[in-house]
Amino acid sequence: MWTPCYYRKFVAFSKSLSSRRHRVQSPALLHLAEMSVKLAAHQHGKGRVRLGRVWREGKTHYMVEWTVFCMLESDMAHAFIEGSNADMTATDTQKNTVYFVAKQCSQRCTPEEYAIALAKHYVKTYPKVSKAKIRVEEQPWKRIDVDGTPHQHGFAMTGTEVRTADVCVDDKDKIEVTTGVKNFRVLKTTQSGYEGFLHDKYTLLPDSRDRILATAITSNWKYIGHVEDYNKAYEGAKAAIINKFYGPPTKGVYSPSVQYTLYQMALEMFAKVPEMESVFFNLPNLHFLPLSPVTSKFENDIYVATSEPHGDIEAVVTRKDAMPHAKL
């Protein structure tokens, strides 16, 4: 049973809700809101489209696995403002086009070349589209050797690093290409230290001249002008990273900090890849903390492996007259 007191409160609450609905739906207020705001930017696309592509050249096969992300900037403000989907390139259409364009690439191609072809297709096929932004992530499948001989159709995943390619193509045929690598895990057991940093009452970390240095490199670099061979440019950049992280095989190279090593890697990349104008690095620490097991002492042999929490170092390095392609 409802008591008179509770009934009066319920009626008052119902009237309050009705009044609120009236205020929200008031055409005058909605018109006023439309006058005071604008749709500043918009885009739509399809993410994580997984694609496998095999090229059969005689008895030798070549294979890639790509994860493709598409994003289109288009004249579709009416979809947001008026609720009309007229002339919209549906994300399902974008997904299907990923496979269609891959089929048209009858010759082996790099992820950058594929991304350019896909972006151009969107811009040229759909009049409402003014810019297509494509990201391709390539898994590290490599041809496997069996008894010292490269297998004709056998592949194995040989690492953790993922090659990335980001491409933008607009309706004026302007093309921007950025290549990169993510989760490239590297480690050396010596020739690394960290000392001379600020010590205060909050600091527990001691100075060290001998420690394990490990990180999972994420890096991407923007090209300027025409790139003749994207594979060659990628391998050159990756070799520069490896050379400056590890140093010569028999003696290595000393790293006084992750920051210093990052900058040395960037300098080497600019020397090896002339088409590159700007490079971004993210280098999180993968920590190996010295441990003295019970009843024994630490002799540079036992460590606690952890990545949480971890230091994080980022930087963008450019040629003298170039603008940074990434923001921190």
Can you describe this structure?
This protein is an alpha+beta fold and 328 residues long. Helices cover 30% and strands 34% of the residues. The chain contains seven helices and twelve strands. The strands form three sheets. It has an eight-stranded antiparallel β-sheet. The chain has a two-stranded antiparallel sheet with strand order 4-5. A two-stranded antiparallel sheet has the order 10-11. Strand 6 (162-170) and strand 7 form a beta hairpin. Helix 4 (91-104) packs across helix 5 (111-125) and helix 6 runs antiparallel to helix 7. The chain is globular, with a radius of gyration of 28 Å. The chain starts with a helix and ends in a 10-residue tail after the last strand. The model has no long low-confidence stretch (mean pLDDT 93).
Present the secondary structure layout:
Blueprint: H1 4-25, H2 27-36, E1 44-57, E2 60-74, H3 77-81, H4 91-104, H5 111-125, E3 129-138, E4 141-146, E5 149-157, E6 162-170, E7 175-188, E8 213-223, H6 230-246, H7 258-272, E9 276-284, E10 287-290, E11 303-306, E12 312-318
Antiparallel strand pairs: 1-2, 2-3, 3-6, 4-5, 6-7, 7-8, 8-9, 9-12, 10-11
Question: What is the structural class?
Answer: alpha+beta
Share in β-strands:
25-35%
The count of DSSP E runs of length 2 or more, i.e. the number of strands, is 12
What are the low-pLDDT stretches, counting only 5+ consecutive residues below 50?
Answer: none
Rounded to the nearest angstrom, the radius of gyration is: 28 Å
Report strand order across the widest sheet. Answer: 1-2-3-6-7-8-9-12
Helix content: 25-40%
Task: Give the end-to-end Cα distance, rounded to a whole number of Å.
Answer: 63 Å
For the residues shown, what is the average pLDDT?
93
Query: Can you write the helix and strand succession as a string?
Result: HHEEHHHEEEEEEHHEEEE
